[in-house]
Amino acid sequence: MEIDLRSDTVTKPSPEMRKAMANAEVGDDVYKGDPTVNKLEEKAAELFGKEDAIFVSSGTQGNLVSVLSQANRGDEILLGDICHIFGSEAGGVSVLGGVVMYPLKTNPDGTIDEERITEAVKPDDYHKPSTKLFAFENTHGGVSGMPISKESSDKMALAAKKAGLRVHMDGARIFNASVALNTSVKDLTEHVDSATFCLSKGLSCPVGSIIVGEKDQIAEARRIRKLLGSAMRQVGVLAACGIIALDNMIDRLADDHENAKKLAIGLSEISKVEINPDNIHTNLVKFKVPENKGFEVSDKLKDFGILINGSYTELRMVPHYGIESEHIDTTISSMSKVMNSI
Ligand SMILES: *Cc1c(COP(=O)(O)O)cnc(C)c1O
Question: Which residues does a 6 A CB cutoff place in the pocket of ligand 1?
């Protein structure tokens, strides 16, 4: 069997999800007539303590729809310089929405200083774009899945709000943060206007993300989703998995975190691997190998049946549903052999 550690997106639906898909009660969601989608959206809104929610196709689309439902052409969004919206979504908010992105320096713990947010808000001056929105990420994928505490999230969100901005949280892996911090997602998103999370990562659904927010903003999100061609019909077959994810797949993320920690400790004991296990709090295990050796390492691991995300120097392994403790043992011993041959 392959040990696929490229991402938690490679997770496949659980047997319970497959069964729920087969039996899902469905209708036309464009008419709001799919009871399973409606149930999932209500459940998500309640879990986050927000007024409403909407099911979308992906995390990227969740962020795009969230931004475009809160900022217009020529408006500006402030966001971290190593965040997913800025660096890994093909510039969608600018390409499709004409929204200007203004990147702010990100601290090593994934937070952004409040003064940086405040200082970046543009004055009312017709030479400037109009600053409308601030976005941050939790967990932060750019810093090895760092969970951002309620205290830090609140500080950023409240600073932005005080400056008159709306706040969006890219919570693709927010449940990893809530499990790691032992804090509810409701608390972690108390002061944000909108938040997205992925069902298709650690929660193991085949497809889907959700946006939660205020009634008016979600209504606008529904229009934008239609505009993007992503209003779907009998999508309850997918939403059925989402309901199971929220009921049964959150607490088990702690196992992924435990496996990630074990993996990080194992990797730290291998020569020529650079990682500090103290920095690994959730499921993303990023580490460095000697310069430009990354692809050689990932290629050689393939011979051991192990798949990882390769780059020139920084590599990533992500434990998830289906990865057990013994797979971590195999991965560590295989890495040790590979690094000896580098
Ligand atoms: C994965 C991810 C996304 C995008 O989700 P997709 O479903 O892959 O489009 C957005 N933000 C963060 C932080 C992510 O990790």
Answer: 58-60, 63, 84, 137, 141, 170, 172-173, 198, 200, 209
